[in-house]
């Protein structure tokens, strides 16, 4: 019996369609159809997966004169392993390179968002306290324009870098299987990066704290414009600190995704899939409540409190659901 006939026979014994077998092997249905019609032959990696799925030897699959072997349903662990998406060394290196390139750009976008109101604060203060020969309306308009331009640039950065990384979104949601050598390569790069990661996190937190010092000292001067300048300086310190933290955390997270550690273990991925429908319904409901209450009361300045309350409540709902 030739390989094509054996695939058909074993597939039917398992009760699988071509689509179901293709899903288990992470290939297209057309590929399975070509194998069964002898148009093409599966590569060695797929032969090994077929052997695991059907519970037969590779000799049986490859040798036309091999004695008949009854297929059996493999255990759940083997079936799951065969159905996981395989990450090759080339793909892992490509992801790490893309994540490292996107990390500093996304971090820069976050820093720009923090800095975006600085011009508005300084210009408004300078106009109010007579430091610049412009009206408050002119200062407010110019500051708002700079704020929007910086925010738009940051959003553009988030969208473009997010789209570049979208092809690797499966690393956050699906169980994966690493080709031999990939785990060792990632572990080595993680170890080399660890000291940089720790020092950057410590430095970023330190800058966020130090940014408060000028603001505290300005209180002794009793100069309101100086206080505004120190607020701007605080935002600058925070922007640099957050830049370091976000930049290094994205790179560190890329190692965790490939190694399925931390927030990306297989158990947490399964929980995340269970939470997705709940999260979609919950946040749509919160948006509806926020808009309805805000339009009904007209008190937009206070209804924002719904968002932090909803976030804390959602965390509690998730914890209770997972415990149950």
UniProtKB/TrEMBL annotation:
It comes from the Bacteria. Gene3D superfamilies: lambda repressor-like DNA-binding domains. The chain crosses the membrane at residues 106-127, 139-159, 199-219, 225-247, 278-298, 304-320. CDD domains: HTH_XRE (cd00093). Keywords: DNA-binding, Membrane, Transmembrane, Transmembrane helix. One of its GO terms (molecular function) is DNA binding. PROSITE patterns: HTH_CROC1 (PS50943). Residues 7-61 form the HTH cro/C1-type domain. The keyword Transmembrane helix applies. Signal peptide: none annotated. The keyword Thylakoid does not apply. This is Helix-turn-helix transcriptional regulator. The lineage of its organism: Bacteria, Bacillati, Bacillota, Clostridia, Eubacteriales.
């Amino acid at each position: 019996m030739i390989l094509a006939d054996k695939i058909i026979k074993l597939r039917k014994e398992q009760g699988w369609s071509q689509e179901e077998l293709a899903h288990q092997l992470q290939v297209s249905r057309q590929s399975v159809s070509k194998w069964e019609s002898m148009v093409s032959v599966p590569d060695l990696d797929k032969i090994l997966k077929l052997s695991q799925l059907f519970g037969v030897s590779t000799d049986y699959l490859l040798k036309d004169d091999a004695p008949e072997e009854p297929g059996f349903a493999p255990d759940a662990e083997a079936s799951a392993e065969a159905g996981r998406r395989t990450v090759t060394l080339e793909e892992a290196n490509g992801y790490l390179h893309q994540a490292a390139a996107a990390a500093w750009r996304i971090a820069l976008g976050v820093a720009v968002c923090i800095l975006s109101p600085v011009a508005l604060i300084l210009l408004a203060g300078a106009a109010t306290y007579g430091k610049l020969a412009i009206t408050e309306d002119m200062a407010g308009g110019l500051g708002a324009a700079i704020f929007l331009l910086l925010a738009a640039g940051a959003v553009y950065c988030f969208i473009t870098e997010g789209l570049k990384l979208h092809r690797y979104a499966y690393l956050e949601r699906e169980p994966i299987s690493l080709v031999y050598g990939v785990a060792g390569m990632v572990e080595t790069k993680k170890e080399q990066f660890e000291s940089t990661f720790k020092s950057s996190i410590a430095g970023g937190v330190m800058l966020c704290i130090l940014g408060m010092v000028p603001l505290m000292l300005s209180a002794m001067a009793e100069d309101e414009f100086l206080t505004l300048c120190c607020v701007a300086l605080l935002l600058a310190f925070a922007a640099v600190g957050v830049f370091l933290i976000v930049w290094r955390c994205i790179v560190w997270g890329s190692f965790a995704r490939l190694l399925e550690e931390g927030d990306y273990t297989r158990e947490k991925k399964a929980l995340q899939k269970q939470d997705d429908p709940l999260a979609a319904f919950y946040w749509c409901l919160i948006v509806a409540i926020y808009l309805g209450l805000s339009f009904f009361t007209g008190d937009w300045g206070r209804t924002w409190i719904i968002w932090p309350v909803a976030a804390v409540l959602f965390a509690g709902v998730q914890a209770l659901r997972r415990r149950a």
